[in-house]
Structures are given as C-alpha cells and as structure tokens.
Write a structure and sequence with these properties.
Pfam family, one: DUF4364
Number of strands: 6
CATH architecture of the largest domain: Orthogonal Bundle
CATH topology of the largest domain: Arc Repressor Mutant, subunit A
Strand content: 15-25%
Organism: bioreactor metagenome
CATH class of the largest domain: Mainly Alpha
Structural class: alpha+beta
InterPro entries: DUF4364 (IPR025374), WH-like_DNA-bd_sf (IPR036388), WH_DNA-bd_sf (IPR036390)
Protein name: DUF4364 domain-containing protein
Helix content: 55-70%
Radius of gyration: 21 Å
CATH superfamily of the largest domain: Winged helix-like DNA-binding domain superfamily/Winged helix DNA-binding domain
Length: about 180
C-alpha cells in the first residue's frame, strides 16, 4: 500500500493538529480536506485514516452543530503538537500558514454566513439570512419575497456579500437622521 516511515506518519498527524491550531477554530471534514489537498501535504485517504487515528488517541474530538460534524483540537492534542512542533519541516508550516492567511475567510464563510428560504405559498417565500461569529448571531434577518427566483437571488447575493451588507445595515441603523 503506502511505504511511509513511522516518523512520516507521525509528521502527517502533527500537520492535521497544526492546521486546526493555526486556523484557531473547529473545522468540518471537508474544510480540513480542502486545506490538506490544496497545500498538497498528504492525500485524501491518508488524511481520513489519520483523522480517525487522532480521534482514537483523543487528540481530536468531534461535535455536531446544524447537521454538520466539526473537528476540534483537544488539550491533549495541543500539548502533543507543542511538544513535537519542531518535527514539522519549516517549509511545510510556512506553506500552511500562507494558505490559511490567504484562504481563511473563504474556508469559514460557509459556516459563518447562512442563507435559506422556505416556500409559504405560491407567491410567498420567507428568506432567512444570518451571519454567525463565535456561535453567536451577529444578524438574523427574515424577508418575505414573492418569488422563488427572488429568494434564490437574495440567498446567493448574501453568500457573496454578507460582510459588506451587514456593515451597510449597521451603518444605516446607527446613522443619526438629523
């Protein structure tokens, strides 16, 4: 199958812990996979195997929220990472650091910005738009629109421009009208 030394295997597990520590928040399997594959630090199958082993070793824990499973670094995982951090080659940590710096917002956008709609009747759709930060709603807005097309357009625009729109709404609400 794979010809890896035990040191290489340990290094790959440390990389997963490093990613979670560096990004400084819990991630879904697909988010971790995105970081690992786009930085080319290991293949998909190895990643899945290592995630499972890190769970068994209690270096990672998972929890479910909004029908998604998140991986979080445990205290034990953090201690192991700090102890063995020097075993990760510097060029690899730089590659991960740079990737996270350039992609953190897009990696997290789907967990922080939420939009959905529900059909009430043939000409009534309720659109829900939210921005969540540190598991708190910054904004939770419901709109009543007359078509599915409008509902979809609003949801798509919210996903693309939520931070700008949120800032505009706050600005309009706190502006002195005199």
């Amino acid at each position: 199958m794979f010809e890896n030394s035990s040191e290489e295997l340990a290094s790959h597990k440390l990389l997963i812990l490093y990613v979670l520590n560096k990004i400084n928040m819990d991630l879904t399997n697909s988010q971790i996979t995105q970081v690992v594959l786009e930085t080319e630090i290991m293949n998909y199958f190895s990643l899945q195997q290592f995630l499972s082993q890190l769970m068994e070793s209690k270096f990672l824990a998972t929890y479910k929220e909004s029908d998604r499973e998140y991986y979080s670094l445990t205290q034990k995982g953090l201690e192991i990472l700090e102890y063995f951090l020097t075993r990760i080659p510097e060029n690899v940590t730089k590659k991960i650091d740079e990737y996270i710096l350039n992609n953190k917002e897009s990696l997290l956008s789907d967990t922080q910005v939420k939009s959905s709609f529900v059909k009430q009747s043939d000409h009534e759709f309720i659109v829900n738009l939210r921005v969540i930060e540190n598991q708190s709603n910054l904004i939770d807005l419901n709109l009543n629109v007359s078509s599915e097309k409008q509902a979809k357009l609003i949801c798509n625009n919210w996903k693309k421009n939520a931070s700008y729109m949120y800032a505009e709404v706050i600005d309009l609400l706190i502006r002195d009208s005199h």
